[in-house]
Amino acid sequence: MKPEIRKCNCREETEQAVHEAVERLGKGEIIGVSTDQGYLAVQRVKVRFQDDYLLKSTRWPEIVLRDSILTDPCPVTLLLRSAEELADFVTPISPRGIRILKRFRAGSVELVVHQSRTRDKCARHGRIVGDFRCRVSSGEVLRGVHSLSPWPLALIPILPDGDFFVNPFVENCYRLVDLLPNCLNYVIDTGEIKKQCSRAVVKCRADGVFEIESHGMNESTIMERSGPFILFVCTGNTCRSPMAEVVCRKLLADELHCLTSQLPEKGIEIASAGIAADFGSPASTDAVVLLNQEDVDLSQHRSQPLTEQLLDQADYVFTMTGHHRDVVLHHRADLEEQTFVLGVHGRDIPDPIGAGPEVYRQCKEAIVAGIKNHLDKLISEI
């Protein structure tokens, strides 16, 4: 069976080919598309859940591919429209898994979620349910097809002779056809693709332990982006939020028995910003002197304004007052569940600017108390 190859030389032709690909997927055909990770084969799939799992806190999918339920370990990979969509298929899921998918270029990381339990249905046949694989769709063509598809899509694994990795980089549509003989029905040819980035497979276990299989990607970089990003927000980013930033760094390092400089190795990133801050202003002298007495260095701090990019990265946003929180949520209502007023019981932490050393000390104590109130939660995600 030779597939129909649709050559696309312009945007209009590509758009028409994308619509035709969606129609063919609806008929159960397998299509070849270009992505940032080379050409890949895609098929419409069904995702089923056991009835007795739908009302429980644990959910695990069964992918129906070519009229068979894949309950044995299988390299078929479910495509996600976004990292957050993972929660629609697997519950519970470690926040680290979503962070990894979200923080790396779409498609460059394949997440393998490990299921530690065996379903009764499978156990009767002596089989253990395999890992669940997923990645975010990438590239103009695949994302276009995915956005118009009302069904879940999955990648068909490519296992060429002599190639160890599943789904190697395929630079053109003709090699894809050769690697998947008698499999494809329709291929969108948008030309040769140059390899843009390495791919990594990250295994995520329920207990939060990660086993990383890196295909050319730096493993330490993956780990550094897997932990929580904690953001503190005040007005000018010269007093309260800088103090909170360095205090939080010290408290977490003490709990984890490491140096503050080693926190990035554990995937932890901490920053601060101000809703009315300029770039480059130093921390207030009173704050620097106060923390220096406790061997905490704030002298290198330079202020920065709160930006969309910082909010996009943040897993937790701690504001100094309710007003700061309102400002954040006015622009980003989607962050409501991860934005908190830092003070104990949600109390405001007043601005100490110009009020003298004693007020700064009281401010710092309120910051410490507020951070300790959230410390267990933060550590649980590391």
Describe the fold and architecture.
The protein is α/β, with parallel strands linked by helices. It has two domains: 4-216, DHBP synthase; 229-380, Response regulator (Rossmann fold). Helices cover 31% and strands 20% of the residues. It has helices spanning 11-26, 51-54, 95-103, 120-123, 140-148, 173-179, 219-224, 240-256, 285-292, 308-313, 322-331, 357-380, and strands at residues 4-7, 30-35, 38-44, 46-48, 62-65, 68-69, 77-80, 109-113, 132-136, 153-155, 186-189, 199-204, 210-215, 229-234, 269-274, 316-319, 339-341. The strands form three sheets. Strands 1-11-2-3-10-7-9-8-12-13 form a ten-stranded mixed sheet, sandwiched between helices. Strands 15-14-16-17 form a four-stranded parallel sheet, with helices on both faces. Strands 4-5-6 form a three-stranded antiparallel sheet, with no helix packed on it. Helix 1 (11-26) crosses helix 5 and helix 8 packs across helix 12. The longest helix has 24 residues, at 357-380. Mean pLDDT is 85; it is low at 68-73 and 117-129.
Quick overview of this protein structure:
The longest helix has 24 residues, at 357-380.
CATH fold group of the largest domain: DHBP synthase
Structural class comes to alpha/beta
Pattern of helices and strands: EHEEEHEEEHEHEHEHEEEHEHEHHEHEH
State the distance separating the first and last CA atoms: 50 Å
